[in-house]
Amino acid sequence: MFAIFKKDIKSYFTTATGYIFLAVSLVLSGFLFSINTVMASTPTSNTSGYFSIILFMVMIFLPILTMRSFSEERRSKTDQLLFTSPVSTISLVMGKFFSAFVMFLIYLALSCLNFIPLYIFKADGASPPNMALIIGNLFALVLVGMAFIAIGIFISSLTENMFASALITMAVLFGFLMIDGFNGLLGSSKLYVVRFILSWFSVLSRYSAFANGYFDVSALVYYISISALFIFLTERVFKARRLA
């Protein structure tokens, strides 16, 4: 697993993928942070609006990380080397998963530099930043990123076209984020079962507890379960192709 992880991490920086991901995501998040806090019409240390937008931004830029996980291997035919390697299929999948996840963590760590101006405003008499809210949102983003990356590498394992993988992943992630809105349209109590099932898959409803600075064990289990499910499905796809 470590060999696959090391190879993929290195590939992010020997190709343009890693640089594009970090550059685009950091510039956009920095801009969004500025207009929602320090450059707002009334400067504020409230980061709620910023994190709400970042959650949807994750839906767009995480597919950049995952689109080449297996699609590029299939396109360039290097997946044949993976099939014949002595490494187990789950180790291969986990190596791909952790390489993308670490890149996402690097982005999150660097994006924390955005919060420095909040302390400057605190010194100028503005309200102090709510650290519980900031930490809760960051932790929730780690969990959401983990789940979305697992979904992304699964979709990447189904196609050899990187751009198709990215677009399909964006569509699927958008669907996960829109479940709450669709659920709200089903106002009839007769559709309680449908609403209950949809609410179980809702990303936003579970994110909200962390966004308000509270630790939600059920949400933690949910994100880990989604991640484990799609990692398992990816392993099944890869194993089936290996045995074919």
Characteristics of this structure?
244 residues; 78% helix; mainly alpha
Report on the structure:
This protein has helices at 2-14, 16-36, 48-66, 71-75, 79-84, 89-111, 116-123, 131-156, 162-185, 192-201, 203-211, 217-243. The radius of gyration is 19 Å and the shape is globular. By secondary structure, the protein is an all-alpha fold. Helix 1 packs across helix 2 (16-36). The chain has one domain (2-243). 34% of the residues are buried. Helix content is 78%, strand content 0%.
- Share in β-strands: under 5%
Number of helices: 12
Based on secondary structure, the structural category is: mainly alpha
**Biggest beta sheet summary:** none
- The number of E-state strands comes to 0
Shape: globular
- Number of discrete domains: 1
Helix content: over 70%
pLDDT averaged residue by residue: 84
- The secondary-structure element order is HHHHHHHHHHHH
Radius of gyration equals 19 Å
Q: What is the rounded distance between the termini?
A: 22 Å
Contiguous uncertain segments of 5+ residues: none
